[in-house]
Every structure is written in C-alpha cells, then in structure tokens.
Amino acid sequence: MKRSFALTLLMVMTVMISAQKKVSILGDSYSTFAGKNPEGYAPFYPNDKNDVVDASQTWWSLYIQAMNYQLEQNNSWGGTTICNTGYGGMDATKMSFLSRVEMLGTPDIIFLFGGTNDAWANSPIGEYKYADWTAEDLKAYRPALAKLLDQLKSIYPEAKVYAILNSELREAINESTREVCAHYNVQLIELHDIEKQNGHPSIKGMQAICNQLQEAIKLNAD
After folding, report:
1. In 54-113, at which residue ranges do the beta strands (DSSP E only) sit?
2. What is the pTM for the complete model shown?
3. Do residues 60 and 107 make contact, with C-beta atoms less than 8 angstroms apart?
4. Which pLDDT tens digit goes with each residue over 145-162?
C-alpha cells in the first residue's frame, strides 16, 4: 500500500514538473545576477549601491516562483544594447541582443527586457524597417528591434514573447518600442513607478516589476 502510494505521488510530481512552463530572459543589467548568466557576461547585481543581494529578490525569480514556472535560460548582459551601437558609438555587435537571440534554449515564455542602454547610450533611432535589414540598419534601434522580434518569433514559434519597457526612458525609445511591438503583435508591458538605486531596481522595484508583469499578462489573457 505504501509503495503504491509512493509511486502514485512520484507520478503526480513528475507530471507537475513536466507541465511547468519554461521561462527564458533576453536582457541587460536589470536582469543580471552573478552566477545566473552565461560565463563572461557582466552582471550588475549584487552591487554595493543597491539593496538587491540575492537572486531570489530579482524580478524574474520572483515572477517564476509566483507562477510556479521554471527558468530555462537567463541570457542577460549588463550594459548591452538591442542594436549594434553601444556607448560612445562603439560597435556592440558581439554583445548586443541581436547576437544572443539564438541562446535561449527551448522556452515556453520569453521576456525581452531591453532598450534601456539604447536610451542611455543615445544609440541611433533609425527608421522603421521590417525586412531586408543591412548591417548598417542594425546599428539603429528601430530596425534592430524589428529584426530581433522577427527572429524571436521565427526561432521560437511555440513560445509566447513579452517585451518589457523600462520606466523613465526617452520618448523616442518608448514610441519606437510601442510601434515595433504592435507590428509584430507582441505584448508590451510598460513599467511605471519602479523604485531604483544607482539607476537599477531596488528590492521594492523588483517586486513592483513582478507585480506589474503578473497584472499585465493576466489582463491580456482575460
């Protein structure tokens, strides 16, 4: 009897685990934590000027735990831009979001959380373009974001893609992100009232991001 019960419990647990949705993140410093991103990537967290000291306090960990999901891949690299132009006009091709789009495993859900460094670095905005991108096009935000979303949908056709837009960015980035996400029918979650320390979400800010994601995705599903 006990053996039968144990086997049944094991089977139920196996089904529950296999049914858990897998989440991948393509991001920048807001989604980093030392030891939780690919080796060689620059993390922001933990940082002595921010009160987030444990990975469990990050927005993505809070969200995954709240939803009973599992982490597939967190491909986040501090200071990176979506487009191929970084700070000071540097060539960011090797570390941009575009260069990492194929490194997300086999997720059911993808969170794209970028644009912050494109805004802070004053990367070129460019023109809206939805096909036949050239290397020159990808140095600018609008065409680069378009190609990124196009690739996410093409490489991960079974995954649900959500884009997250940081608060307090320049309007050109905000407007461009809205336009490109709408073109690809990707839900854009625009953050607001995020407490920050040293320009990055604090513990309260991380919890606010988690809460806003849950609410926005729930409203879209209803």
Report:
1. 70-76, 109-113
2. 0.91
3. no
4. 999 999 999 999 999 999
